[in-house]
UniProtKB/TrEMBL annotation:
<dbReference type="GO" id="GO:0007005">
    <property type="term" value="P:mitochondrion organization"/>
</dbReference>
<protein>
    <submittedName>
        <fullName>MSTO1 protein</fullName>
    </submittedName>
</protein>
<dbReference type="GO" id="GO:0005739">
    <property type="term" value="C:mitochondrion"/>
</dbReference>
<dbReference type="InterPro" id="IPR049942">
    <property type="entry name" value="DML1/Misato"/>
</dbReference>
Length: 227
């Protein structure tokens, strides 16, 4: 995982954030272009890392994996108007790649497709909506007679070198900066020097700046004023 994260980082960045959609909200019988177009300029996932989500979606580099969607399931339903980028003759991998370029223009994005879904047989907890089929696809309305447990689900996951990490790393730097390390003699009894700690603290601040954009810069100034 460490080496994989390195491939997504450049310009001094070292950390990635994780995102996932469990399950990927695809309707039964709905093609991948139809599903992606329903979310327009967005991605149907949630942030898993302990960062604060931003209203503006952007990233520097990302690797995205969608599993559980058949490669044959890329033809749009008749009469559906698709953006020119999501052409029905493209493969599912190409469709996902094009959508990522649309949502995250200028970012380095890689897309991977796996036909095999994530299996959710016991002891996997059954916390799913009654609107899900046995294969994890959405239905328009709950069935009259509840079906058996959800046995598998499609999943969308991503690792991103993203500006959301600026707030996380800068907040950690500010918290550590407030500590009076000279009062923690046991902390340095392991051989850590005070100068080494200060150097690591400065490296953390520099790392947070690598994920900074104009929006995060303004936010950091606001946090500094509030302190």
């Amino acid at each position: 995982m460490m080496h994989f994260a390195e491939t997504l980082n450049f310009s001094g960045r070292k950390v990635v954030a994780a995102w996932a959609s469990v399950p990927f909200p695809a309707r039964r019988g709905c093609s991948l272009p139809d599903t992606l177009c329903a979310f327009e300029q967005d991605m149907p996932w949630k942030l898993l890392s302990s960062c604060r989500e931003q209203k503006v979606s952007c990233c520097f580099a990302q690797s995205v994996v969608l599993r559980g969607i058949c490669k044959e399931n890329h033809l749009s339903r008749p009469g559906t108007q698709l953006p020119s980028l999501l052409q029905p003759w493209q493969s599912t991998e190409q469709i996902l790649q094009q959508h990522l370029h649309t949502v995250f223009p200028g970012a380095f994005s890689t897309a991977h497709m796996l036909e095999q879904p994530c299996h959710t047989l016991p002891p996997y907890p059954q916390f799913f909506s009654p609107l899900l089929t046995r294969e994890g696809f959405l239905m328009d309305k709950p069935p009259r007679y509840p079906s058996t447990a959800v046995e598998s689900i499609p999943v969308l996951a991503a690792l991103q070198a993203s500006p959301v990490l600026h707030t996380l790393l800068y907040s950690l730097y500010k918290d550590l900066q407030k500590l009076n390390t000279r009062r923690w003699a046991s902390f340095f009894s392991a051989g850590v020097e005070h100068d080494d700690f200060q150097e690591a603290l400065e490296a953390l601040r520099t790392l947070s700046q690598c994920y900074e954009t104009g929006f995060e810069a303004d936010e950091s100034e606001d946090e500094g004023d509030s302190d």
